[in-house]
């Protein structure tokens, strides 16, 4: 393993821990689906945009899995690993193909958000039935919408503070 890869893996671990901490600070239960809404998209999207698909996937999958385990929702942990990992990977891949402006990240963020909403719709429907799956859509849309807004502000600020993050 090269020094650069080791630094990237350490950074991914730190960002995963920070995303878990941020998400646990704000947990909004959704009784209809036995799930909850968090701020994990902020960590996933920011990591994916600034550091690429590998870090986005690690932060997404790792934080989603750990949040579910720590907050007492283990039934969701494997779904979260897959859904949020894919979300971070796809946003990172699509964002890395764009010129680094906030306007160009709208598409990758919307696609990542669609992956999350559709993934949890299917997981919820599998676990609790189609009505519960449909009930999960609104809360997940709020979560990703808020995550996109905060990410946009964070990425803009971080790029000004650390210009080489493009």
UniProtKB/TrEMBL annotation:
Keywords: Membrane, Transmembrane, Transmembrane helix. GO terms for cellular component: membrane. The keyword Transmembrane helix applies. InterPro entries: ECF_substrate-spec-like (IPR009825). The chain crosses the membrane at residues 12-30, 42-67, 73-94, 106-128, 134-155. Gene3D superfamilies: 1.10.1760.20. The keyword Membrane applies. PANTHER family: UPF0397 PROTEIN BC_2624-RELATED, UPF0397 PROTEIN SPR0429. This is ECF transporter S component. It comes from Levilactobacillus suantsaiihabitans. The lineage of its organism: Bacteria, Bacillati, Bacillota, Bacilli, Lactobacillales.
């Amino acid at each position: 393993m090269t020094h650069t890869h080791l630094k990237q893996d350490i950074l991914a671990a730190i960002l995963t821990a920070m995303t878990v901490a941020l998400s646990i600070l704000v947990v909004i239960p959704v009784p209809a689906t036995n799930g909850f809404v968090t701020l994990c998209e902020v960590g996933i999207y920011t990591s994916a945009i600034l550091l690429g698909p590998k870090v986005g996937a690690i932060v997404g999958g790792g934080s989603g899995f750990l949040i579910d385990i720590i907050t007492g929702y283990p039934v969701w942990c494997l779904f979260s690993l897959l859904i949020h990992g894919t979300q971070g990977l796809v946003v990172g891949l699509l964002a890395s193909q764009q010129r680094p402006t906030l306007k160009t990240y709208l598409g990758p963020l919307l696609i990542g958000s669609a992956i999350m909403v559709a993934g949890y719709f299917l997981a919820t429907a599998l676990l609790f039935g189609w009505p519960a799956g449909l009930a999960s859509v609104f809360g997940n849309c709020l979560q990703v919408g808020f995550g996109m807004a905060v990410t946009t502000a964070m990425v803009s600020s971080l790029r000004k503070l650390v210009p080489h993050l493009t």
